[in-house]
Design brief:
Layout: H1 3-21, H2 29-36, H3 43-52, H4 62-74, H5 77-88, H6 97-110, H7 117-131, H8 141-148, H9 169-172, H10 183-188, H11 190-213, H12 219-240, H13 244-250, H14 264-292, H15 300-305, H16 318-335, H17 338-342, H18 346-353, H19 356-366, H20 370-393, E1 397-405, E2 409-415, E3 427-431, E4 441-444, E5 454-460, H21 464-474, H22 487-490, E6 503-516, E7 528-534, H23 539-552, E8 553-555, E9 562-564, E10 577-584, H24 594-607, E11 613-619, H25 631-644, E12 656-658, H26 663-673, E13 678-683, H27 686-699, E14 702-705
């Protein structure tokens, strides 16, 4: 840190210490644990406290804290390593196997990793044998220092991860050029920005045209008419953006390279908010105009709430229908907010959004010319709905198998009808009458199109409907066993091998509307694809990875020999590499698709001189390698993975990395590989999407986000 940063940090630490220490100006062990946000029984908190308490008074003064932190921040590499050695060396001499096992067990607890006792013994033995160079039965400081030289990334920023000692992020960030003003942003978002410019110009032209047409009226009247004309357009265009079948068809044409079809949801939201704005201005302008017209014998309230003034082409109902429309549109806007949709109240959004039928009906009565704007898009919308109902009701669809996976994920296996065709990464709307008779919810298909007998959905419990689904199948009395089972064809591909209360066969009626295309269809036009899934966001990529593998795998017709080769498919440019990045919070979440990933790894290793698929796993609850509470564990995991050629956390050959990806380094490495134009596909939380998109703009990668 610079001198100024050092001074600010010192001031910040002093204030934090004073807020924790209280009147006695000393921090005891309990206060220290609270500040570090650790569990009651924390080996590391107790060891840090003992080392910080240099005078053995069972409390830490400000001077003692600053002295210890000064060593960790400004000390030499040897000073930091000696502190680490003292943390591990409880009896003050050398580290014996029992001490190391205690340390590693504590590391596992701090990182929320659960491993069998036998695996803990293996980790202890791997690290101890590697570090104990002279086979003396104990690890000395010099031996630990020599061992750490094989892990240079550990020393980059050695820390105890005390967040309460870090200054606010805003004080540390340097001023940067706003992202929206960079050349990279405008280049990578050119289709969307041009489309929005065209939309804005058309709206302006409609507004000006309506104002000029009614220029003999008052200013308020002209403003109301201008907004009304814009509403005619927007209230039909908002529907065009949700013609999912038409958009899915257009994705297979050249139009996808010109129009931002993959961002139809975002554009739908923008137009929706524009409608809300236009209605507010339209209504307000009319109210002011009515006030100016009071001399005609009617009050403002009579203009607004009665048909006596005779305004409108259907028995003077323009004002009354306008007030109702204003209320309904405002309610739709509120119920469509991110807070409502993402806070477990999706049903509020779903049911309130169905009022679009009333909005269009009232607009027909309210405005004499609205039907001219509505007729063509309305017919397309009606046709899509009829096709959707017909497709969903054709053929008996049944949920034939259910797996309840960790973190409240429900894996549904649906008997796939012969006519149902889809592309990898597509999604469907599903209705399960026993859960909710009239509700339809969208979920990505997680099975491959080549899997002809079944359809997979992985559903994370995040709202009322998804929680009801999980709880329904968790009940021991339901559902009843089905005599028709797909056990023979599904058992070999089952994601979860666990049978019993979390796995059952059934025969439950359901309806599926779709499939609908997503941005992930562009993967097959990529040269170098990067797939990033956060949590359950892996589902579209599970389908894609299976499909790619099945297309690449070749089998000898005369024997059981199989091999992989480059895809000979006119639809696919994907030749060089796929980087798959999966980020999970906890260890159990990897169980959702670990069997599939293991199979892909094994099949790839059997027949390919050059890896086509590179996997990168991240566990965010695990402490990073440069954290003192995790260094020993991460070293042991690395050593045991090299020895067993298998990761101890997931069982994959790919080593699970702790913490969050450093996206700048990840994308820098991908850029340096120079394996063709890079396309990044993401499915997960919107917050992480913004971070990844910004990095893609910096490196010139194309970015696609799953939206539905």
């Amino acid at each position: 840190m610079s001198a100024d940063e050092d001074a600010r940090w010192l001031d910040w630490v002093t204030k934090q210490f004073e807020s924790i220490a209280g009147d006695d100006k000393e921090i005891d062990l309990d206060e220290f644990k609270t500040a570090l946000k650790v569990k009651e029984q924390s080996f590391f908190a107790e060891r840090f406290f003992a080392l910080f308490d240099s005078d053995g008074s069972s409390s830490i003064s400000l001077d003692e804290l600053l002295e210890a932190l000064d060593l960790l921040i400004h000390g030499s590499e040897t000073d930091k390593l000696r502190f680490l050695f003292q943390v591990y060396d409880v009896d003050e001499g050398s580290i014996d196997p029992d001490e190391l096992r205690t340390v590693l067990k504590s590391c596992l607890r701090e990182s929320a990793i659960s491993l069998p006792e036998e695996k803990l013994d293996d980790l202890t033995l791997a690290l101890f044998e590697s570090a104990d160079k002279d086979n003396s039965g104990a690890i000395t400081f010099e031996e630990l220092k020599a061992e750490l030289e094989d892990f240079p990334e550990v020393m980059e920023n050695l820390t105890i991860a005390a967040n309460w000692l870090k200054p606010p992020e805003a004080d540390q960030k340097k001023r940067q050029t706003p992202r929206y003003l960079t050349r990279a942003y405008w280049h990578n978002n050119s289709r969307k920005l041009l489309f929005l410019c065209g939309y804005a110009c058309l709206s302006l032209a409609l507004f000006v045209g309506a104002v000029l047409q009614h220029r003999h009226g008052s200013a308020c009247y002209m403003l109301a008419k201008g907004c009304g004309q814009c509403l005619n357009f927007n209230c039909t265009f908002v529907m065009v953006l949700m013609l999912r079948r038409c958009l899915t068809w257009l994705r297979a044409t050249w139009v996808v390279r010109v129009l931002p079809l993959d961002q139809n949801i975002l554009l739908h939201q923008i137009v929706g908010y524009a409608i809300l704005g236009y209605t507010l201005v339209h209504t307000t302008a009319h109210i002011f105009n009515f006030q100016l017209s009071e001399h005609s014998g009617f009050s403002v309230w009579e203009y607004l709430l009665t048909t006596r003034p005779g305004i409108g082409w259907v028995k003077g109902t323009a004002s009354v229908t306008g007030v109702v429309l204003q209320v309904v549109i405002c309610l739709m806007g509120i119920c469509s907010s991110t807070f409502v949709r993402r806070s477990g109240h999706f049903e509020v959004f779903y049911w309130s959004h169905l009022s679009y039928v009333w909005v269009w009906s009232l607009l027909m009565v309210h405005c004499a010319n609205f039907w001219k704007w509505f007729v063509v898009p309305g017919l397309l919308f009606l046709l899509e709905k009829i096709i959707g109902i017909a497709v969903s009701r054709m053929g008996g669809l049944y949920i034939v198998e259910v797996n309840l996976l960790p973190s409240k994920v429900t894996h549904l296996v649906i008997k796939r009808p012969q006519f149902f065709q889809f592309k990898p990464g597509d999604y469907v709307y599903i209705n399960i009458p026993v859960i909710a008779k009239y509700e339809w919810h969208p979920f990505t298909i997680s099975s491959a199109p080549e899997q002809s007998d079944s359809l997979w959905l992985h559903i994370r419990s995040m709202g009322q409907w998804t929680n009801r689904l999980y709880e329904y199948f968790r009940q021991p009395q339901s559902p009843a066993p089905s005599p028709r089972r797909l056990a023979a064809s599904l058992r070999s591909r089952q994601v979860s091998a666990k049978f019993g209360e979390n796995h059952r066969f059934c025969n439950i009626k359901c309806y599926v509307d779709g499939p609908y295309g997503t941005p992930t269809r562009q993967i097959f036009a990529s040269e170098h694809a990067v797939l990033i899934g956060a949590g359950i966001g892996i589902t579209p990529f599970a389908s894609i990875l299976q499909s790619i593998y099945r297309r690449r795998k070749q089998n000898c017709p005369n024997c059981s020999y199989s091999w992989c080769e480059n895809i000979k498919d006119s639809e696919m440019k994907l030749r060089k590499q796929v980087d798959f990045i999966w980020i999970n919070r906890d260890q159990k979440s990897f169980e959702w698709f670990v069997s599939l990933l293991t199979k892909l790894e094994m099949d790839q290793a059997d027949g390919e001189p050059e890896r086509f698929l590179e996997m990168h796993m991240y566990m965010t609850s695990a402490l990073c390698k440069n954290d003192m509470k995790a260094i020993g564990l991460q070293m042991a995991l690395d050593l045991l993975a090299k020895k067993e050629k298998r990761d101890s956390i997931t069982g994959l050959r790919t080593r699970t990395q702790p913490g969050r990806p450093e996206w700048a380094k990840v994308f820098q490495k991908i850029s340096e590989e120079n394996k063709g134009k890079v396309h990044v596909f993401y499915c997960g939380s919107p917050a992480l999407a913004k971070v990844i998109k910004a990095q893609c703009e910096h490196f010139g990668f194309n970015f696609y986000k799953e939206n539905f």
